[in-house]
Design a protein that fits this description.
Blueprint lengths: L17 H6 L4 H17 L10 E5 L3 E10 L2 E13 L3 H8 L11 E11 L2 E8 L8 E11 L5 E7 L11 E2 L1 E12 L3 E11 L6 H22 L21 H12 L1
Parallel strand pairs: 6-8
Antiparallel strand pairs: 1-2, 2-3, 3-10, 4-5, 5-6, 6-7, 7-9, 9-10
Length: 263
């Protein structure tokens, strides 16, 4: 499995609203640059970002997880790449993410997921608190996300660390340096291929030989469960921002076609 995406996938323009820029203002331009470097890295397989090749961690019939380490801020951090196929709609992905009350059904070791702000249909600020299989203390993550859909219906979501936008909680360790990219592509027969690539600094003084196995095991369990959730009937209802088929005349499809005509 390759992390490479089509060259045209890198031509997406993520244009944040004024409200979002205000909300995400600390380090906004720096974060935007890092995100675009991440997207560029996807198309190059992160060839220059890591000396390590991808190594298969586990694979099932519908889910595959690979791993490697990359250097970031003087540390060797674990990077994972996941590909999974599911039967269902692309809207199901956003519906599952929006169902924060049931996040624990698929996100392994999660204790709480709260949407702190939603500047637009395409953007979220989210707080996530994890239970502690980690050797030390509970972890928490504050993340910003933004997504767009291309004219060929390919969906992209970028997620990045927004720790500075929410106060630290005593007794909990804040995950730093998190970045991730989600891509969804429609397949024949009402199937969807999801690709994820992400990295995070577990923080604290936990040695990598202890934290990495926990992170890999948790990731594998999470994506296996996510694949099942994405196929549930209750998540197949259309999302107002997603165009499922080019033949559709939904508002989302009309917006997508209009945006392409302006380019």
């Amino acid at each position: 499995m390759s992390a490479a995406t089509d060259e045209k996938d890198n031509n997406i323009v993520f244009s944040r609203t004024a409200a979002t820029k205000s909300l995400f203002r600390p380090g906004y331009q720096r974060l935007k640059l890092l995100l675009w470097l991440l997207c560029a890295g996807l198309s190059m397989g992160f060839a220059q970002a890591s000396e390590e090749p991808w190594r298969l961690y586990k694979k099932s019939e519908q889910v595959s997880l690979q791993q490697r380490h990359i250097s970031q801020r003087g540390k060797k951090l674990l990077q994972v790449q996941v590909q999974l196929d599911y039967q269902g709609s692309m809207s199901a992905f956003l519906q599952v993410l929006a169902d924060t009350n049931n996040a624990a059904l698929w996100l392994h070791n999660v204790a709480q997921v709260t949407v702190l702000a939603k500047p637009s249909l395409y953007e979220d600020l989210v707080y996530t608190r994890f239970n502690a299989p980690w050797p030390l203390t509970e972890r928490e993550l504050v993340s910003c996300s933004e997504w767009r859909q291309q004219a060929d219906l390919t969906f992209h979501m970028q997620v990045w660390d927004c720790a500075e936008l929410h106060p630290d909680n005593p007794g909990k360790l804040r995950l730093r340096g998190f970045s991730a990219h989600w891509q969804l592509k429609p397949l024949p027969d009402n199937r969807v291929r999801l690709t994820y690539i992400g990295i995070a600094d577990a923080g604290g003084k936990v040695p990598r030989f202890l934290s990495d196995p926990v992170a890999l095991s948790s990731s594998w369990k999470s994506f296996l469960a996510l694949q099942q959730q994405l196929q549930l009937a209750k998540y197949q209802q259309p999302h107002p921002g997603i165009c499922e088929t080019l033949q559709s005349v939904t508002e989302a499809c009309q917006r997508l076609k209009a945006a392409e005509e302006k380019r």
